Amino acid sequence: MSSPFLDIRGDPIPKEQVVGCGSSAVILLQNGVAVKTPLRYLWSSDSDVEVNVQSVRREQDVYRRLQSLKDDRSKGIVSCIGFSAEATQLAYMANGDLRTYLAKCRPSHQLQLAWFHEMARTLCYIHDRRVLVADIATRNFLLDTDLSLKICDFSEASLLPLDCNMETVDDNGFTAQIDIGLLGTVMYEVVTGSKCDVDLFKDNSPTDGRAYWPERKSLPSTQGIWLGWIIEGCWDGGFRSAHSLLRALDSVRTGEVL
């Protein structure tokens, strides 16, 4: 049976190959590899398809930068196996995305803390490579066979100059602080089991395309929840960098702070 998607040549994609889709790409499982290809429907215009092709290519540039160094922290990023002009080949993660996993399972505090530490460590590396993720959510973390986590989606990411200051850089409202805030929503969702989606454009005028972190009153309470103080620090600017967040999580792991 065919899916509603077409490949770049306009041929129908078999439904059994489709493992996911986003706003600009569809992910296929082919020969044990996850293949990310531009989103195309039967009714898509040529200009729509071209926009999605360019999105895939921009994301490839992000993967090239993130994989250009031999750094152990990059293990928290889904491995990019190869590129073509219209597709990206990624390692297939057998246990799917974190949001789907959380709907079925409640991880222990020990596993949650291991995940949070890996997330923060990976974000340190990403920011050190002068990339803003911009779309950090439980649906964009994938689980390997051993339940280790890897971030997978850079379609909205900003590739910044290598000499920029990550604490002050601003790309149309997107900042390192917003990445940290979004990571806080992931932590909240893992700890509580409740979704925590944030709209960075909620109160914008039609002509304002900048991202804005929402007011505190629009976010859920962290009172009385495990690691609530860390989540709160992500949301209120208490952590000025991913490195300071990682240090706080290290203090929990070593028992210095609960």
Record the SSE blueprint.
Layout lengths: L1 E5 L5 E3 L3 E4 L3 E6 L2 E6 L7 H21 L13 E5 L2 E5 L6 H7 L4 H20 L2 E2 L8 E3 L5 E3 L6 E2 L16 H17 L35 H9 L5 H12 L5
Antiparallel strand pairs: 1-2, 3-4, 4-5, 5-7, 6-7, 8-11, 9-10
Organism: Penicillium diatomitis
Keywords: ATP-binding, Nucleotide-binding
Pfam family, one: PK_Tyr_Ser-Thr
Shape: globular
Kindly report the average pLDDT value.
94
**How many angstroms separate the termini?**
52 Å
- What low-confidence regions span 5 or more consecutive residues with pLDDT below 50? none
| DSSP helix fraction | 25-40%
Verbal overview:
- The chain has helices at about 45-65, 100-105, 110-130, 175-190, 230-235, 240-255; strands spanning about 1-5, 10-15, 20, 25-30, 35-40, 80-85, 85-90, 130, 140-145, 150, 160.
- By secondary structure, the protein is an alpha+beta fold.
- The strands form 4 sheets. Strands 3-4-5-7-6 form a 5-stranded antiparallel sheet. A two-stranded antiparallel ribbon has the order 1-2.
- A hairpin with a 2-residue loop joins β4 (about 25-30) and β5 (about 35-40).
- α3 runs antiparallel to α4 and α3 packs antiparallel against α6 (about 240-255).
